[in-house]
Design brief:
The complex is a heterodimer of chains A (104) and B (525).
Chain A: H1 18-22, H2 27-64, H3 77-103
Chain B: E1 11-18, H1 21-26, E2 38-45, E3 48-55, E4 59-66, H2 69-75, E5 114-118, H3 144-157, E6 162-168, H4 178-186, E7 190-197, H5 206-214, E8 219-224, H6 230-237, H7 242-255, E9 259-265, H8 274-283, E10 287-294, H9 312-322, E11 333-334, E12 344-350, E13 356-358, H10 359-363, H11 365-371, H12 386-399, H13 410-422, H14 427-434, H15 440-450, E14 451-456, H16 467-471, E15 475-480, E16 486-490, H17 491-496, H18 498-501, H19 505-511
Parallel strand pairs in B: 5-6, 5-15, 6-7, 7-8, 8-9, 9-10, 10-14
Antiparallel strand pairs in B: 1-2, 2-3, 3-4, 11-12, 12-13, 12-14, 15-16
The chains are: A mainly alpha (104), B alpha/beta (525).
């Protein structure tokens, strides 16, 4: 049998020291810098992975609608799809590797 | 810099005025003008609804209000306009609850749907969970003329008609002049008369059964029926009454008297028998339905855990799993005239193929709301002419009100209007209903087997009492003021606060010893 009401009804936020609360702490600058570092380390490979993946999807659809030859230097859409696929895979692999490096 | 105050983990449903159960327990007889109305709110936490109020003496007091916020919010969608009332004392603007010492006050917002008359304190049982605190030792028997005076005064203040008169007690059937009382009240303009009984007298008294048979068009029996297990009856009634209940049901069924099973349900005692009682009602002719009342903590019934108990939505939630999905919680709606937390109601109709379906399920929830004008931005149903729409609305409001009873002939018309207009595919029921003018008894038989009314009626004790439900209450108990004037007050308030309880007719009679001598012939088991 229940003996106490839900804990939320006895919850009371702690009183904060007003001097401490009002002291200037440029925390957000620290946060932005950290986000910048993380982006710098993993962004190039992530960009390749994302755009490569989008490119594969786009060219597959275009080929299904009849596009056999692209204005891309590679010409044949099958070659373009293969190129984008390889790029996306390498980008994804490096991104995962970088993230793993950052975590461990 | 901090991120500021954290967001609350509970979700507030509405702000209410409530009362402190601890203060009440410390001094139950406290004068009502000293009872504090406390600021509070209903709040959802851990997927249940809690009543939170602040008491200057006991701090924050939290009690369980209802078990399922989703179902409670569903019920809140079914509220129809209330009706005007005439206050018992003009100019009574006293606060709740002391206002009720002078009857219904000016600020009441609903008329009397049910007038309950306690005709005797005496009972032939001494149930451990009796909210009226009745027993064989008490002797307050109200003279028939005093009961009629209170009823007539209410009829006068209800524009010449009472929707429902509930004769209660104690055990009303052991009142020495009960049959005379029944004869006299049926002469009055009362749509439906209900007798609350434990069934002991009915199970063996032929004269009483004849009286019920004679008045069967207008009178219905509310039979206490808590389940099928011996332990259930020992808990609620202190005696194994199963054989007697069975006999009372058989006798009323054979006499063609409509009855409703009133089940007092308590967590861990018989909350798992709700489905069985509903199924029994659906199988048994002349059991018009079931009224399930979660046990509440007024009177002798004090042993309810205020943090873990059976509630209105808890009963609704149990219906589906316990009836094999035949009756589900959304087969019921809130009773539109009462506060939506106070009562829910639903009709189950047996179709021609034998399958049971709810009236609201047949019509559809959104369509029913449109018919009841509950949808503000409703789309006009062009298929139905305006007159038919009005007829369906009136019929639905009639069915979804306290005054409807399967024993009453007009209910056949109400169901017929709704079924015909909504094309619900219950053709044989309709053809019989259409024939009702020529063949009323066949309609009664059909209603007795193929239509069942299920209600859930959660009364309030001090752990669940909120002011708005009292102000919108439409179940009123006949009382007498200090100046000996006939008046009435909300049922839950009368059961909870001793100074109001002492104004019940039976208590007033009990305090004037020897007002009516009690014949014990009927009182013995």
């Amino acid at each position: 049998m229940r003996q106490e009401p839900p804990a939320t009804f006895s919850h009371r936020p702690g009183v904060v020291d007003i001097r401490e609360a009002q002291q200037f702490d440029p925390l957000q600058l620290c946060i932005y810098t950290t986000i910048g570092i993380i982006s710098w380390l993993i962004t190039p490979a992530l960009t390749v992975a994302i755009f490569g993946g989008l490119g594969v999807v786009g060219y597959v659809r275009a080929r299904r609608r009849g596009l056999a030859k692209s204005r891309c230097k590679l010409g044949d859409t099958r070659l373009v799809i293969a190129y984008l696929g390889v790029a996306a895979t390498i980008g994804a692999a490096i991104t995962i590797y970088r993230i793993a490096e950052l975590i461990t | 810099m901090t991120t500021g105050m954290p967001t609350r983990e509970d979700r507030i449903m509405r702000y209410v005025n409530a009362f402190c159960p601890h203060c009440h327990d410390e001094y139950p007889d406290r004068p009502l003008d000293e009872v504090s109305r406390l600021s509070g709110y209903l709040s959802v936490a851990e997927d249940q609804v809690w009543l939170v109020r602040g008491c200057p003496e006991h701090g924050k007091v939290v009690t369980l209000y209802d078990e399922d916020p989703e179902i409670l919010e569903y019920l809140e969608q079914w509220t129809a306009p209330t009706k005007y009332h005439i206050p018992d004392t003009p100019g009574n603007y006293d606060p709740v609850p002391s206002a009720y010492l002078r009857g219904l006050g000016e600020i009441q917002t609903q008329h009397t749907c049910i007038l309950l008359e306690d005709v005797t304190q005496e009972c032939n049982l001494r149930c451990p969970t009796c909210f009226a605190d009745s027993s064989p030792q008490l002797s307050g028997v109200v003279a028939v003329e005093d009961i009629l005076a209170n009823i007539d005064q209410r009829i006068g203040r209800e524009a010449g008609r009472i929707d429902v008169l509930m004769i209660s007690g104690g055990e009303p059937t052991i009142h020495p002049d009960f049959i005379a009382l029944l004869d006299r009240v049926t002469e009055r303009n009362i749509t439906r008369i209900v007798v609350n009984t434990n069934g002991i007298t009915i199970s063996r008294d032929d004269e009483l059964l004849d009286a019920f048979h004679r008045h069967r068009e207008q009178v219905e029996v509310y039979l206490q029926f808590d389940g099928f297990r011996r332990e259930t009856y020992l808990h609620h009634r202190n005696a194994d009454l199963r054989t007697m209940k069975e006999r009372a049901v058989e006798r009323m069924r054979d006499a063609g008297v409509f009855m409703t099973l009133t089940m007092t349900a308590a967590l861990g005692v018989n909350d798992d028998e709700i489905g069985d009682v509903v199924s029994y009602a659906m199988e048994t002719p002349y059991i018009g339905g079931v009224s399930i009342q979660p046990q509440f903590g007024s009177g002798r019934s004090g042993a309810i855990n205020p943090l873990e108990r059976l509630t209105h939505t808890g009963v609704l939630k149990r219906l589906g799993p316990q009836t094999g999905g035949i009756v589900k919680w959304d087969d019921l709606t809130a009773l539109p005239c009462s506060h939506p937390h106070c009562c829910s109601v639903g009709y189950m109709i047996q179709k021609d193929d034998g399958e049971w379906q709810s009236l609201i399920g047949m019509i559809g929830h959104e369509r029913a709301k449109q018919h009841l004008d509950l949808v503000a931005n409703r789309i006009a149903d062009d298929d139905l002419p305006k007159e038919v729409r009005n007829a369906v609305k009136a019929s639905l409001l009639g069915l979804l009100s306290e005054q409807s009873s399967l024993s009453h002939p007009t209910v056949g018309d109400l169901i017929r209007t709704v079924c015909e207009s909504c094309d619900l595919g219950v053709s044989s029921l309709l053809s019989i209903a259409a024939d009702a003018g020529r063949n009323g008894s066949k309609l009664r038989e059909t209603l007795a087997t193929r239509v069942k009314r299920i209600t859930v009626k959660p009364f309030m004790d001090m752990n669940t009492m909120i002011e708005e439900r009292l102000i919108q209450c439409c179940v009123h108990v006949g009382t007498k003021s200090e100046a000996d004037l006939d008046q009435c007050a909300p049922f839950c308030a009368v059961q909870a606060w001793a100074p109001l309880g002492r104004q019940k007719l039976s208590e007033v009679a009990g305090s004037r010893l020897g007002s009516v001598p009690l014949t014990l012939e009927r009182a013995t088991i």
